[in-house]
Amino acid sequence: MEVFGSIAELEERAGLPKGSVTDIHRHKIDHIEVPSRKPGGKPLRRIDEVFDCWFESGSMPYAYIHYPFENKERFEANFPANFIAEGLDQTRGWFYTLMVLSTALFDKPAFQNLVCNGLVLAADGKKMSKRLKNYPDPNLVIDSYGADALRLYLINSPVVRAEPLRFKEEGVNGVVRDVFLPWYNAYRFLQQQVERYEMAEGKAFRLTHGSLIELAQSCDNTVDLWVIASASSLVQFIRNEMEHYRLYTVVPRLVGFLESLTNVYLRLNRNRLKGMQEGATDGDCFRALSVLHEVLFLSCRAMSSFTPYIVEMMYQNLRRVMPGSPLESIHYVQFPKADEVIDVATFKVKGGAIDMRTIETSVDRMINILELARQIRNDKGKPVKVPLRRMVICHPDADLIRDLTKVLDIYIKEEMNVEEVVGVSDLGAVAKTKCDPEFSRLGSRAGKRMKEVTTAIRGFGPSEIATLKAGGEVALCGGDLTITVDDVAIKTEYDVAAVAKQHSLAGEYDAKVNDGMLVALDLEQDIKLRSKQAAREIISRAMKLRKSTGLDMGDRADVFVACTANPGEPAWLKEALVHEEATFMEKLKCGVASATLRSSSAVVIGSDEELAVGGEGDAGVNVVVSLAVPTPVASTKCAACSVDAANAYLGMRSRSTLRAE
């Protein structure tokens, strides 16, 4: 038996003219005979057996560039392939023949990585069938949710782990809800605030930093640095996962980042991004907008291969404020390189004065504090709209307490509506620190002496605990056994009553402890706090009225309040009208007055329902908030005959109609 490696070889052995064989299908070569090399042997003819067609597929790495007859250097430089991708049903077909042929020829596999997808089934677990129509129309799914949502749903499913997927349209909708809406809302908020900034400053918004690293180096806001670190970590994570072909880990990490961006960064910096942050320095709003832009741009670059359409839409607007000549499409922009983002482990700000790991720890702790404070408010029926006097935070880390009370306190005060944040790091009078052994680590080492070791560890005092926290060792059992911080669980037990006494929480208060940190809230109310609550609610209701009546930002309307169910204004409402005037002017751009002072010629354009304002104990005090504008009248300088007609016309036209006209 002979095997021919080319048409030319077949022609030569069969004694045929060169170029005479142009088709090697069976019916074109079955008549060809090749003389036998054995003396007196019969002529050779094609055997009836045919190679499995998967042999051809398995030869793909070599055959498609005609190796070894051509492209030898090209083949050797690129073989084996970085990865191949196919369905699970190819295990006994293509995957098998690739491996067999490559092993036989080169003694190594034909690919370095395999991305194997499972089968997409109907929602009931059955095979998708055109006859049964047990699946949604793909075109309708794309029309309803977008191709990006469908792509991300599949990438985040078991199907990319070679497992079956029961396709459900609700899952695609979930991607829109959990990923695209928060992402787009953050982008839309940036767009709105840039437009507001340009109107307020009278000039175009243009980024001034050359890179993310340069922007981070110039930042002095802790939360700015934290969100930059979060975005950098997202990029590094995606790069690492893609290098290992783990598609399915990206979406959960992206969702976590978007939650941090929208529920933490935007929520805490909303007023700052709007240019309304109390005590903000010049240029602080610009820096905050620059950080948000850079973070969104970075996320678009990292996700461009996963969600190509939405990132392109966002990029076309983001590039408008970039310096220089940005590339025309996000898909021309390279995936962020390692030196384009910050490494949290090594990056230093302001010459090493600020450590990024410390920032991450402080902000993560702040998020934990806010969650504990919300739990206290929920348990005690004190919504965030009710202002509180004081929050007390206890933790043994003095640096952390300093960050929370001197740097991040502005966010805690605003988010939790408290007037004062007090930190305690010297816990001698309010807490006890105890140690328990980690039995899983010490059991095999201590053996029969485990009871003795347990007693000794639980008897550790401040000096032993301090040694362990500093990375030192404590010797037990006559020096035969050394204990490190990994061998024990250090717990802090707080005396809540002592904390309350130390910080004058004499009335109603509550506290919660988590991960060694105590958060206590002073829940006692007084007339000053109730007046602040009233002001906050009046502002909220006035803003809703402005929106419902169709007023624009520049439209002037005065705000009035009236008590209807209780004669006379309570003390807390009088306090609010007098002492919260600056707050009213900042938020509403106008003062708030009693309805008794409203001019008889003013026109009430909107009022809300009678709702209780001011907190507990005021069930009988109902307050109505109303908007009023001066009555439009014609100038008396007009001809006398036309004044009455003009006033009649103005009186029957709505304010929105007059503005349009």
Describe the structure.
The radius of gyration is 37 Å and the shape is extended. A hairpin with a 2-residue loop joins β13 and β14 (517-522). 46% of the residues lie in helices and 14% in strands. The mean pLDDT is 85. With 661 residues, it is an alpha/beta fold. The chain has 26 helices and 19 strands. Strands 15, 16, 17, 18 and 19 form a five-stranded mixed sheet that branches. Strands 8-7-14-13 form a four-stranded mixed sheet, with helices on both faces. α11 (222-243) runs antiparallel to α12 (250-273) and α22 (527-548) runs parallel beside α24 (581-588).
Structure keywords:
661 residues; alpha/beta; five-stranded mixed β-sheet
In terms of topology, how is this protein built?
Elements: H1 7-14, H2 26-29, H3 54-58, H4 60-63, H5 72-78, E1 81-87, H6 94-106, E2 111-117, E3 120-121, H7 138-145, H8 147-155, E4 165-166, H9 169-201, H10 212-218, H11 222-243, H12 250-273, H13 284-303, H14 308-318, E5 348-349, E6 354-355, H15 356-379, E7 388-394, H16 398-407, H17 409-416, E8 418-424, E9 431-437, H18 439-446, H19 450-458, H20 462-469, E10 474-476, E11 481-483, E12 488-494, H21 496-502, E13 509-514, E14 517-522, H22 527-548, E15 558-563, H23 571-579, H24 581-588, E16 592-594, E17 603-607, E18 611-612, E19 622-629, H25 640-651, H26 655-660
Parallel strand pairs: 1-2, 3-4, 7-8, 15-16
Antiparallel strand pairs: 5-6, 7-14, 9-12, 10-11, 13-14, 15-19, 17-19, 18-19
Helix pairs in contact: 7-8, 8-9, 9-12, 9-13, 9-14, 11-12, 11-13, 11-15, 13-14, 22-23, 22-24
